[in-house]
Design a protein that fits this description.
The protein is built from twelve helices and five strands. With 332 residues, the protein is of the alpha+beta class. The protein has a domain of 183 residues: Neurolysin, domain 3 (Orthogonal Bundle), CATH 1.10.1370.40.
């Protein structure tokens, strides 16, 4: 599959979807400081209006933190004049040999779209102050735009145009595209079993916190007891083990995920419901009116509007939990 996912093509596909949806133009610039020669910078505009800057730091190197993430170097604000957001997408794609093409796994391609969803959330912010910006929303709302943005990778418009063999230029075979969708429901990282993985991680996280009484805690022993009590089926396992779950105890984002990793499940509900708003519109996932409403009611408002109110403004009602079960293949 990776042969059909050259990193540059997938980057172009993600930018194409953002352009279609939000009217954004992302053009590379070369007069902005970078921390490493691999890093590229893109000026983001909507028509003649400057929106912000986006740094792409995609390749692994010595000393770089593992994984993939989005950083906000500077938040958008307009309290004392307009200040443009500065954001970055960071990954650890293996550097290709000289003259070769960097290829992504399907997970890596999803990760790029996911992190671009975060970046769009920051770039489209209309918050008056950083304290009311996109990065300050509740964790489940923070993950809504990123999880939702993964959906555009699987659209035929992106796959047929950008998921092409790095040597022959042939598009990804139709049967392979069909198999990706068929496998998604059972994918431990994305399908129904992922819910069990998230819940297992959350239960372990909570158990470790509850075990802390001022003394030493053996997190591995706590994890083993918690997982034994849950009785997970063989097909499911925690998405992260307690010894390498930096979200829980490393202080990232002011401990917003401490004993709260389950927020991703609610984010999945929000994203599944939001996707249905697009899919039920005349233009599907590329429906312009739905994209404008989503941008205005979700991406732009930050923490200046209560999350429940913002979602109701977009969807006309509270989120429907059944949207997630439909996403997993269950018919209503």
């Amino acid at each position: 599959m990776s042969a059909y996912l050259p990193v540059e093509s997938i980057r172009e596909g993600a930018f194409h979807a953002a352009s279609r949806l939000h009217g954004l133009d992302l053009a590379e610039v070369h007069d902005v400081p970078v921390c490493h020669p691999d890093v590229r910078v893109f000026a983001v505009r909507r028509g003649k209006e400057s929106i912000g800057l986006l740094w792409l730091d995609l390749y692994a190197r010595d000393g770089k933190v593992s994984g993939g993430w989005m950083d906000e170097y500077r938040a958008a604000e307009s309290f004392r004049g307009r200040v443009l957001p500065l954001v970055s997408i960071n990954m650890n794609v293996a550097r290709p040999a000289a003259g070769a093409t960097a290829l992504l796994s399907w997970w890596d391609a999803l990760t790029f779209f996911h992190e671009l969803g975060h970046a769009l959330h920051m770039l489209c912010s209309k918050a008056r102050t950083p304290s009311l910006g996109s990065f300050t929303v509740a964790p489940d709302v923070l993950e809504l735009p990123s999880i939702l943005n993964e959906r555009w990778l699987t659209t035929l418009e992106v796959l047929e145009r950008f998921a092409r063999h790095h040597r022959t230029g042939e598009p990804m075979p139709k049967r392979l595209v069909e198999r990706i969708e068929e496998a998604r429901v059972f994918d431990p990282s994305d399908g129904a079993t992922a819910s069990l993985g998230y819940l297992a991680t959350a239960f372990v996280d909570l158990a470790v916190h509850l075990a802390a009484d001022g003394g030493e805690v053996d997190p591995v022993a706590v994890e083993e007891r918690a997982l034994a009590d849950l009785g997970l089926p063989p097909a499911a396992e925690p998405l992260h083990r307690v010894t390498h779950l930096r979200h829980a105890f490393a202080g990232i984002y002011e401990d917003r995920y401490a004993a709260g990793y389950y927020c991703y499940l609610q984010a999945d509900v929000l994203a599944a419901d939001a996707a249905e708003a697009f899919l039920s519109s005349p233009g599907g996932l590329y429906d312009a009116a739905t994209a404008e409403r989503y941008r205005r009611t979700i991406l732009a408002v930050g923490h200046g509007v209560p999350a429940a109110e913002a979602f109701r403004s977009f969807r006309g009602r509270d989120p429907d939990p059944e949207a997630l079960t439909r996403r997993f293949g269950r018919k209503s």
